[in-house]
Amino acid sequence: MATEVVMPKQGNSVESCIILEWKVKEGDQVAVGDVVCEAETDKSTIEVESSAGGTVLKLLYQAGEEVPVMQPMMIVGQEGEQVSVAPEAEAPEVSEESAPVAAGKASSQEVPVMVSVASAGAQGVSPRARAASLAVGIDPASISASGPKGRVIERDVVAAASERAPLSPVAKEALAQGGLQSPAQGSGIGGRILSTDLTSPVVAASAPLSSDASFPGPMVETPVKGVRKVTAKRMHESIATTAQFTMNAYADATALQSLRQRLKSSPAEMGLQKVTINDIILFAVAKTLKDFGYMNSHFLGDRMVNFTHVHLGCAVDTPRGLLVPVVKFADSRSLKQISDEFKRLASMCMEGKAQPDDLTGGTFTVTNLGAMGIDTFTPVLNVPEVAILGVGGISMRAIEDEEGDYAFIPHIALSLTIDHQGVDGAPAARFLKALCENIAAVDTLLAL
Q1: Tens-place pLDDT, residues 12-40
Q2: Whole-prediction pTM
Q3: Which one, 187, 359, 365, 421, has least CB within 10 Å?
Q4: Which residues are CB-neighbours of 45 under 8 A, at least 6 positions away?
Q5: What CA–CA distance (Å, rounded) separates 143 from 130?
Q6: What pLDDT digit, counting tens, does each position of 274-291 carry?
Q7: Beta-bridge partner residues of 94
Q8: What is the mean pLDDT of the chain?
Q9: Residue 196 has what pLDDT?
């Protein structure tokens, strides 16, 4: 009897998945547990296993299409068994009346499978291929596509990179920074690609407008889905359902920068050289929140939930959009442990391998735009959390001493957004003041 294989549920927040690549085709034999396709959620890339064994009778979606979770994506049954698809049904349904009574009669029976197919349409470049092309500095438009409907997929990028001449170490490092592309051959010995061979993406010059040029001209329409769709929904809900209020402050960053420099020059065997300014801020936030439990809370309308432990959300900018992995039990971790865990989570996010559990459960969120030259900004709450901290850049500020003289001292900008429904301005300001003091005396904080 024909059996539906559904798109599995991936956490409570995932509503649909995009099929990136089928690993099977109609007519193939599959067993329970075999990987049948690779799919992308709004958070990660997953391998989907078959929940039934037999012959693949029908693939209900093509690569590039979006499948709601817990809805059929393929039909597995006995070889020769016939299936039909009704595309307008509201929900998938297998008709038991026409199902074969015995396996021996299956070949002469037809099992009608009712399934709603919502096509998202094929895209020119898969998300993983786009991320891979950015990493190696190859323009996706120059790559020969082998995916469904002429789509460039990850293996096409890998193949193109393997055909390219070897890169010099400087060129490889420059490509890793992003924003540059490499040619197939360079000017070095044997065609080796040097840093001077790298170029910026070519932007075609605009042709002069004629008097009869149609308005508004060429456009590109992109479906809102995946991470972008989820982010849009959550940001709108955040603004619409909360009373957001932002306050700004500056913390003396002298000790912060000094500690970072000492860690950077510490012995390699200590594993502290890669601890960043952001890691130190995360550490200071986790320790400060222990004394301000009302900031480590969820506002749920008719009740507040205060958490004993700090589970720190940390915003990460990925090729697929904004993701917020959570460093769980951050208050119980050392600076090195926070640094290592955040780097692990951020790497998983960048590679599209973060799991739903990695991205849920936060009690307070930190987002850092300082590296992009931003001073202060208004971070948007990650509901139902009552607060989010925005970290800006470090700049010199004139400070008056006790004798009336002025000195320029490095300060780091902090922007705290709160939900005024759950916490008032004065208590939030006390937390921000204490955080500034802890950052200014971060050496002492490490001893706690």
Answers
A1: 667 788 888 899 999 999 999 999 998 88
A2: 0.63
A3: 187
A4: 20, 38, 39, 128, 352, 353
A5: 11
A6: 999 999 999 999 999 999
A7: 113
A8: 83
A9: 77
How many other β-carbons are positioned within 10 Å of the β-carbon of residue 384?
Answer: 19
Q: Is 62 helix (H, G, I), strand (E, B) or coil?
A: coil
- Using the predicted structure, report yes or no on whether residue 255 has a pLDDT greater than 70: yes
The answer to whether 117 and 130 are in contact (CB under 8 A) is no
pLDDT mean over 320-346: 95
How far is Cα 139 from Cα 37, in angstroms, rounded to an integer? 26
Q: What are phi and psi of 298, to 5 degrees?
A: -115, 135
| SS3 readout for 196-241 | HHCECCCCCCCCCCCCCCCCCCCCCCCCCCHHHHHHHHHHHHHHHH
The region of weakest confidence among 187-201, 303-317, 372-386 is: 187-201
Structure tokens that stand for 236 in this block: 């709108």
- Would you state the structure tokens that stand for residue 73, as one six-digit string? 């994506």
Query: Which two three-digit tokens encode residue 337?
Result: 């442990």
Contact 27, 56 (CB under 8 A): yes
The total of other beta-carbon atoms located within 10 Å of residue 236's CB is 11
| Count of Cβ atoms closer than 10 Å to residue 175 Cβ | 21
